[in-house]
Amino acid sequence: xxxxxxxxxxxxxxxxxxxxxxxxxxxxxxxxxxxxxxxxxxxxxxxxxxxxxxxxxxxxxxxxxxxxxxxxxxxxxxxxxxxxxxxxxxxxxxxxxxxxxxxxxxxxxxxxxxxxxxxxxxxxxxxxxxxxxxxxxxxxxxxxxxxxxxxxxxxxxxxxxxxxxxxxxxxxxxxxxxxxxxxxxxxxxxxxxxxxxxxxxxxxxxxxxxxxxxxx
Length: 216
Known about the structure:
Blueprint lengths: L1 H140 L6 H68 L1
Helix pairs in contact: 1-2
Protein name: ABC transmembrane type-1 domain-containing protein
Keywords: Membrane, Transmembrane, Transmembrane helix
């Protein structure tokens, strides 16, 4: 009986060893498969992170490039607009100043011409009146006594007419000269006002341009 049991134990022992060896091999294979799957997941996650980082970097670089390009284009456009505006303002100022100078020169020349012409006309009228009076006096001095009364009345009328003509001419000349002087004064004042307005407008435009450039 003991021999039989010992034989059975001897027979069973190799079977137990075989089963333990099989279980170890199965556990090792399962652990290796789980470790391989874990490593593949880690690799996939690392690759995904790298791809995401690369995409983010590329997109950020593209956005930066676009923003820089837009800023450069806007800056160039602003500079061009400012330069054109400054050139236009300078041209307008020069044209206005030249026009004002021309107007002032023409006005002064007109005043001079009117004053000289008035003086000449006045001299001519006075000289003519003096000649008329001299002729009347000479003609009256050589007349007879019978017709002295008639001639004296005629000469007085001629003198009155000559004096009236002189007065009218002098008044017309003086009024014309005064009108010309007033017109010239108004033109000069308007020209000065225009120059002041243009200068103020130029200063305002320059200030606005500087503010826009600083803001940009």
